TrEMBL record, chain A:
Domain Myotubularin phosphatase: 128-503
GO biological process, alphabetically ordered: negative regulation of autophagy; phosphatidylinositol dephosphorylation
Entry superkingdom: Eukaryota
Name of the protein in question: Myotubularin-related protein 9
Broad class of the protein's primary localization: membrane
Membrane topology qualifier: Peripheral membrane protein
GO cellular component labels: cytosol; endoplasmic reticulum; perinuclear region of cytoplasm; ruffle membrane
An example Gene Ontology molecular-function term: protein phosphatase binding
Localization, UniProt: Cell projection, Ruffle membrane; Cytoplasm, Perinuclear region; Endoplasmic reticulum
Pfam families per the UniProt record, alphabetical: Myotub-related, PH-GRAM_MTMR6-like
Gene3D superfamilies named in the record: Pleckstrin-homology domain (PH domain)/Phosphotyrosine-binding domain (PTB) (2.30.29.30)
TrEMBL record, chain B:
Keywords, ordered alphabetically: Hydrolase
Keyword Hydrolase included in the entry's annotation: yes
Pfam assignment, any one: Myotub-related
Region (Disordered): 530-550
Domain Myotubularin phosphatase: 126-503
Protein family membership: Belongs to the protein-tyrosine phosphatase family. Non-receptor class myotubularin subfamily.
Species annotation: Astatotilapia calliptera (Eastern happy)
Protein name per UniProt: Myotubularin phosphatase domain-containing protein
Residue stretches in coiled coil: none
PANTHER family from the UniProt entry: MYOTUBULARIN-RELATED (PTHR10807), MYOTUBULARIN-RELATED PROTEIN 7 (PTHR10807:SF35)
Lineage: Eukaryota, Metazoa, Chordata, Craniata, Vertebrata
GO cellular component entries: cytoplasm
Any one GO MF annotation of this record: phosphatidylinositol-3-phosphate phosphatase activity
Active site positions, chain numbering: 341 (phosphocysteine intermediate)
Length: 554, 550
């Protein structure tokens, strides 16, 4: 027995309790045996026709216990926002179970996480760890332009710990220059290519904030690097995702923004996207509002408003639209950054690509986008998704940055329901797996950490599982018709809806909406079926006509 | 035509509502029935037509250097912002439109001049499209318990009720007349809906508030209710649902009206469901529309405005009331509790309709019957509420908007349940106000007969029926589970959405750019063609198979 397994055994005070009653909203009550394993909470009635509950400990955000006599009630609140109740007879059993769950769901050590123990029950057709390598993405770029090169300057992660080993930079800049620029940007995040707009050759870059400090430090190499992306006589846009006062304040801590005097060819625009602690607060308030039982419309609307969630969605989408507009409408290049360049920056650059690039609206394209603009680009998933809306512990680095991105994608999907190859379930799935998963994809905070943890060798990639026909079928949008156009979403408050599929998922029955979806699938499938039949009959008839000379005689 | 001071103005600008910098230049025409703006840009002939009867208000704003702004608000929530270069011209258009949009008599209404290319025989047939008597016989009426009463022939008992009314078999004319004297505007309790199922004999009746004041009672009214109670043999009590907040009902007592004294009525449960009055609703909608009209509101502006308007709260109250009835009726399923099957009795067509929508009405034609019976025939004051003719502004109220919105909210929760779609509701909404069809002219059946509406105008229902493919929900199947029985709608606050499809109807940029519904409809049309091809190919193939082998 390995030491890890030993460790779990010590944490499990009671591995098994009989006669536990499980209550879940909109589902029948189940009575059965509760089992705790190193990574799962399992409740099984041992009857064929009832559903079992398999819950990953890492999905548990908080638990509460209370007693009525000797009957214990444990409320388990999950990171996917589900709330379930367990009734356990016997105070000691209940306390043991509760404290075991508590301990198992708050393990900090990455190497103890489930993905390291998970063995796939399916055949891996295509290893997701190799599906989206930067060198492959770069090949696509090379087919469009020769102005960029793939630099290995960060191959040992020493220049920028949050960047991948390979990044695309302007061709004329050697690695030595990049090293100088890296010292001028927050976290060493020197400007790199995020997106190349094939239609007009404009580009979007992203970076960390420039370290100008209070005395207005400058870096000639940085200025030259970003100027190299401009067409002669053209201006570019720097989109700073912080409000001007926030950017000003950053100077005192050594950060700052590009001064017009030093970047005369660039126009700087400040947008106010909230930072992570504020976003976490917003999520907590929103989920609290959704679970309010008061049935008062005034209370609901005022709580929804006070959560600011929809405001955040609107702000992020507006900024992404702005970036896309600069590129597509103004024909200008864009540099996006906030402070670190790992959160709001990525929301903006990835959403702008959804708007501009039809390729990002396919299943594979979207996976590639998540891989490029989030995982490789160094969004600290493990820190951001450590806790969700129910956690009682004080948030440290938690923030629903990725969830907000998915919410924004959902808003665009709602407005262009036929332009995405994937459906809402795919977005919900990504939300779930970002917070708790059997796959290693979202573990770690950067490419460097993932390399150190040997994730590709030791864990299974989410993409390996998703990209199998049986899963894809469930996640594919039956309405999809490739749309090569730029899609401009409306950001009017009336157009932005609450994402029911995530926030009300467990609060209301989705039966009728699911039925509508099935009905839609049925209409389309039936059409396809007929089409096949008609075509095959046509072929048969044509064949009969050629075979049967009698019919050609008048 | 005498009201048109200026039939044509050139060089008029029509501003985009969201971005005033975007504007179209063209010519504005006034006709007897429409305001028409024709864009004069080379190459495109873009026309905007606005029916005078749809104009809600015309405001002339202070002149600016670029011209004199004229703001037109329509009852279908279209807002037009014109800039007319000369102040005098703006003044003339303003005065003309003010007069044209406020007919002083019914005869000025558009329906009396609307003459589509339909011959007289067809026009008469339009009005035969709906037959309310057939609907009553579908409910199994008359029956041994309910009879058609001649008491209101010539509208002598209640001038706002229809002539044909169903009452309990045991209700004698003196009881009915006595009860009617105790009820506001003589609107005595009469049958609205009767369950056609043999297993449930629950009925929904309706009436106005009693004139009970603080102490008055009326024996005939008590007998009338007793008769209704007895007309359901499998029930020993009934509900009286008062659609007002209890406070309002108490206040009305001081004015000699009020609510039934429970002591005088036996075996009756009284329930207040708290729907606010027409004035509260009017003000609430006004506030909500102001929020819709904000040019680029922040999310907080919008949500705070929506909350303080109270609009969704009122929609929830109405839907709650309908669902209350539906739930009570379900709990009292005679199969389970044969002695507690109650009967329902309302004051207001609202809740009736919603109850029925929840329970049984999902095909398109049924909603025609529903509106025709419970709103048109039972005397909703369309002329006053929709301001068809100039009148007391305090009588205007968006009650009918709320009805349609509740249906829309149900459609959002049950996408497969209704045969009709959102476009259908919006079209009906438009015609409640447009006065293009005769259906909603006047305040009751008596007035419509006096106006000879059936002889002089066209009917909306047959128009909608003729165009029903546009209004069909592709997800609807008559045998789908959502179309069967009660819709168990959620009325949790988060289940209600803002209906931008209606209130921001003309802000095209706000709506989804691709329509799932249109896509599915196109697929279904193609499927139909494929089915035809398939059957013809199969026949031809069969022909080959039948050929004698050479």
């Amino acid at each position: 027995m390995s030491t890890e397994i030993m460790e779990f055994a010590e944490l499990i005070k009671t591995p098994r309790v009989d006669g536990v009653v499980l209550h879940r909203p909109f589902m029948p009550t189940v009575e059965g045996t509760l089992c705790l394993t190193g990574h799962h909470l399992i409740l099984s009635s041992r009857q064929d026709n009832t559903e079992e509950l398999w819950l990953l400990h890492s999905n548990i955000d908080s638990i509460e216990k209370r007693f009525v006599g000797s009957l214990g009630h444990i409320t388990v609140k999950c990171k996917d926002l589900r709330v379930i109740q367990l009734e356990i007879t016997g105070m000691e059993e209940c306390l043991n179970i509760a404290s075991s769950i508590e301990a198992l769901s708050t393990l900090d050590l990455v190497s103890l996480m489930y993905p390291f123990f998970y063995r796939p029950m399916f055949e891996v057709i295509e290893d997701g760890w190799n599906s989206f390598l930067p060198q492959n993405a770069f090949k696509d770029l090379e087919s469009m332009t020769d102005e960029w090169r793939l630099s290995e300057v960060n191959k040992d992660f020493s220049l920028c710990p949050s960047y991948p080993p390979l990044v695309a930079v302007p061709k004329d800049f050697d690695d030595e220059t990049l090293k100088k620029v890296a010292t001028f940007r927050h976290g060493g995040r020197f400007p790199v290519l995020s997106y190349y707009h094939k239609k007009n050759g404009m580009v979007m870059m992203r970076a960390g904030q420039p370290l100008t400090g209070t005395n207005g430090r400058r870096c000639k190499e940085d200025e030259k690097l970003i100027n190299a992306t401009l067409r002669p006589g053209k201006r570019g846009y720097i989109i700073d995702t912080r409000a001007i006062n926030v950017a000003q304040q950053a100077k005192a801590r050594g950060g700052g923004f590009e001064l017009e005097a030093n970047y005369p060819q660039w126009r700087r625009i400040h947008k106010a996207i909230e930072r992570y602690n504020v976003l976490q607060e917003s999520l907590i308030k929103l989920v609290e509002a959704c679970n309010d039982q008061s049935h008062s419309m005034d209370r609901w609307l005022s709580k929804l408003e006070a959560s600011n969630w929809q405001t955040n969605v609107k702000e992020i989408l507006t900024t992404a639209c702005l970036a896309a507009q600069c590129i597509d409408r103004e024909g200008a290049s864009v540099l996006v950054h906030g402070t670190e360049g790992t959160d709001s920056t990525l929301q903006v650059t990835s959403l702008a690509q959804i708007i501009l690039d039809p390729g990002c609206r396919t299943v594979k394209g979207f996976q590639s986008l998540v891989e490029r603009e989030w995982l490789q680009a160094g969004h600290p998933f493990q820190q951001r998704c450590a806790q969700s809306a129910f956690s009682n512990s004080k948030p440290r680095h938690e923030a629903p940055v990725f969830l907000l991105f998915l919410d924004c994608v959902w808003q665009i999907l709602r407005q262009f329901p036929c332009s995405f190859e994937f459906n809402e379930s795919f977005l919900v799935l990504l939300f779930e797996h970002a917070y708790a998963s059997q796959f290693g994809t979202f573990l770690g905070n950067s490419a460097a950490e993932r390399a150190r943890l040997c994730l590709p060798e030791k864990t299974v990639s989410l993409w390996s599982w998703v990209n199998r026909p049986q899963e894809l079928e469930r996640l594919t949008n039956p309405l999809y018709e490739p749309n090569s156009l730029v899609i401009w979403p409306s950001v009017a408050p009336q157009s932005l809806l609450l994402w029911e599929g995530v926030f009300l998922r467990w609060n209301r029955s989705s039966k009728c909406l699911d039925e509508a979806y099935e009905e839609m699938v049925h209409i389309i499938e039936y059409n396809k079926e007929l089409q096949t039949k008609v075509n095959s009959l046509r072929r048969q008839l044509a064949q009969l006509e050629t075979e049967d000379p009698l019919l050609h005689t008048p | 035509m005498e009201h048109i001071r200026l039939p044509k103005v050139e060089n008029v600008k029509l501003l985009d509502r969201i971005s005033h910098r975007r504007r179209r230049v063209g010519t504005l025409y006034l006709t007897a029935t429409h305001t028409i703006f024709v864009e004069s840009e080379a190459g495109v002939r873009n026309e905007t037509w606005v029916l005078h009867s749809l104009v809600c208000s015309v405001d002339k704003l202070a002149a600016t250097p670029s011209g004199c702004p004229l703001l037109i608000h329509c009852k279908n929530f279209q807002v037009l912002h014109f800039i007319i270069s000369k102040e005098q011209e703006c003044h003339d258009i303003h005065l003309s439109l003010q007069r044209l949009s406020q007919p002083e008599s019914y005869d000025e209404l558009y329906c009396f001049s609307y003459k589509p290319n339909v011959d007289e025989k067809e026009r008469r047939q339009e009005w035969d499209f709906l037959d309310l008597k057939a609907d009553y016989s579908r409910m199994g009426l008359p029956s041994s318990l309910w009879k058609l009463s001649p008491v209101n022939q010539h509208y002598k008992v209640s001038d706002t009720y229809p002539a044909d009314l169903f009452v309990p078999e045991s209700a004698t004319p003196p009881v009915i007349v006595g009860s009617s004297k105790f009820r506001s505007r003589g609107r005595f309790p009469a049958l609205s809906y009767y369950s056609p199922l043999a297993s449930s004999q629950a009925a929904i009746c309706r009436s106005s508030q009693p004139l009970s004041g603080f102490s008055a009672r009326c024996l005939e009214d008590e007998q009338m209710l007793e008769a209704i109670l007895r007309s359901n043999p499998c029930s020993d009590f009934m509900y009286v649902v008062d659609t007002r907040p209890k406070l309002n009902a108490i206040a009305n007592r001081a004015a000699g009206k009020g609510y039934e004294n429970e002591d005088n009525y036996s075996n009756i449960k009284f329930q207040f469901v708290g729907i606010e009055n027409i004035h509260v609703m009017r003000n609430s909608q006004q506030k909500m529309l102001e929020v819709c009209e904000l040019r680029s509101p922040s999310m907080s502006d919008f949500l705070e405005g929506l909350e303080s308007s109270g609009w969704l709260k009122h929609i929830k109250a109405v839907l709650d009331a309908g669902i209350f009835i539906a739930k009570v009726s379900l709990e009292a399923n005679p199969h389970c509790l044969p002695h507690r099957c109650p009967q329902y009795w309302f004051r207001c067509g609202f809740v009736c309709v919603l109850y029925l929508l929840c329970v049984c009405v999902k095909p398109t034609s049924s909603i025609f019957v529903l509106i025709e019976k419970d709103w048109v025939s039972f005397g909703h004051k369309f002329s006053h509420r929709c301001k068809h003719v100039v009148g007391d502004p305090k009588e205007v109220s968006p009650i009918i908007d709320q009805l349609l919105e509740c249906v829309w909210q149900l459609m959002e929760q049950f996408p497969c349940a209704f045969e009709f779609n959102e476009r259908f509701l919006i079209t009906i909404h438009n015609h409640f106000y447009s006065c293009q069809f005769g259906n909603f002219i006047g305040n009751n059946q008596r007035e419509r007969i006096e106006l000879r509406v059936h002889e002089r105008t066209h009917s909306l229902w047959s128009y909608l029926w003729a165009n029903r493919t546009d209004y069909t929900n592709p997800l609807y199947r008559p045998n789908h589970s959502q179309t069967q029985g009660l819709l168990r709608a959620s009325t949790s606050p988060y289940s209600f959405k803002f209906w931008k499809g209606l209130y921001n109807r003309f802000d095209h940029g706000m709506h989804p750019r691709q329509s799932v519904e249109d896509y599915l409809r196109a697929i279904q049309e193609e499927t139909q063609q494929l089915e035809e091809q398939l059957s013809s190919h199969t026949q031809v193939g069969q022909g080959y198979a039948d050929l004698p082998q050479a």
